[in-house]
């Protein structure tokens, strides 16, 4: 990876081209011409001299010259005086304060932005983005539906921002209600907002980078009726990191809900869940740590509001308690290899408790872990599992139960908050997906997460950086192209056809034998070595491949990747769960055959295929909406209040191409209205002007330069 300094130098070649579109004077200055770079250095120095002024730049398009250094300095100056939002052309940059700033998000502030004739004239704020999207729906300009894309790395503030947006709409889109009784409106807003604590309890966890890290992606569609009132919502989730249930990375925690139960249970519940105070659970690391999100009552209250009755809640918590018990079950190798493994003596009590809580016979549960049933023609043959296999089957049971329970909850939430299609006509979508991840060891989970980020970056590039410039050219405007980093070749590497990392992974997953990491690595190298985005460290002993993502290089370990992609569930486990006397568990596993779990326990669809399909559906939705981008920035890696680390920030700014965005925004035409709407709207005032004749317009849109 380049150092921050290197990248700063690359970026420093750009200059502000404000107002330059018409004259074609946008300088993409990548030339090493000494006099040019000298003069740029001079301009930068001159701009930075007036330090007291730097925080006043509400919109980075006004910075001159626009370079990574000048942009960074302005953001730093603003952060110092506790100004956290800044416009960057079409994007809003949100710096995480890492401390509560209540006055910034009060009801009064919401109302101010909502009621202002020109909210853009107010200080930059996430409410401007929210209000702009809302007014676009009111204005019915095509495309009417809106998407608010919130991106940034882990801990940057995406979930926080999404919650804030939802609260905004729950306030402004309901408070003007006169049509519905206060009761109904309150109920739907409340339900929509209550979906957050539930999904966060079950889908978020404390990681090294964020105490409340979302371990899944979500797109929330807020449904608006003809009067732009919030009448419902629906949630689409993406790729829950279910491995965390049975395997928590060092110094990280399991999903919040387990800690909430452990800390918030009443004596009676403790007894029911077989969770005595002080009991150690292997799958509950760092239980001594207390965080804000450990509040069990909030989750229960939200479950109540969403209409999950007491009995259902009991079933949910019993299942979760059963999973915790499973984590304490260990196996020892048998004396004789032809015999199944033994459950370790001190584990037996946990196996018994798990069986009771999951409402399945303990004997059968034990058998499922220790013995595999093989089909030989019409005959079934029983084969003892190795010690490692027993552990894998235990983990697999926990993961499949947790993932299906999460899915059931999301479906329940949707049934509870989704409005009837006849009652809503437009929507505002809020997208909050996990940020780009690069750990010491990365595997399939990180590959999928980073692939999702590549897709979103591509959407931004295609929608804004490329399409906008192409449009100026097609409109016959004089425009010199601003260079940007296009990530298409990285996407081709990951998902392209006929050969890509995903296609090769799927090919290896289809083979009916255990995969070998070195063989897979050799296959990748043979097929993909031409692609500039993939490389290998020749001296590494660990089978891996390195992908150059738009946000940086990531090494992926291959060991276990193919198995993860298959995500097989032994059929015995599913058959056992179908028999559970916990009616929720029984319902989850017997009512429907999900994509990945069939009654035969086999995976029909690989993880990457399923993920790719769900992302493609998301992209289709995004393409039919008007997007609004918010880039959340994490000012320091330690989540310390009001601490701004330049190196951290510059890397994030560069990764999302903020300088290029500012250039294009500054030089371009920020307002675009389709001709038909433009003429409809302004015909009246143009009686004698050329507007009457469409022949004067060559392109699709009226492009307006802001003053
Ligand atoms: N505008 C804000 N005001 C105050 N605190 C904030 C704000 N935005 C974020 N935070 C703080 O930063 C923490 C991390 O934010 P958040 O959980 O939204 O990050 P994220 O980008 O969603 O991370 P991940 O990708 O790991 O889910 C929050 O828990 C909150 O404490």
From TrEMBL:
Gene Ontology process terms (BP): actin filament organization
The UniProt record lists the keyword ATP-binding: yes
Record GO cellular component, one term: myosin complex
Residues that, per the record, bind ATP: 152-159
Positions of region (Actin-binding): 615-637
Key words of the record: Actin-binding, ATP-binding, Motor protein, Myosin, Nucleotide-binding
Chain intervals for the UniProt region annotation (Disordered): 1-36
Keyword Nucleotide-binding part of the UniProt annotation: yes
SMART domains: MYSc (SM00242)
Classification via Pfam families: Myosin_head (PF00063)
Domain Myosin motor: 55-707
UniProt signal peptide: none
GO terms, molecular function: actin filament binding; ATP binding; microfilament motor activity
Entry similarity comment: Belongs to the TRAFAC class myosin-kinesin ATPase superfamily. Myosin family.
Protein name, as recorded: Unconventional myosin-XIX
Organism annotation: Solea senegalensis
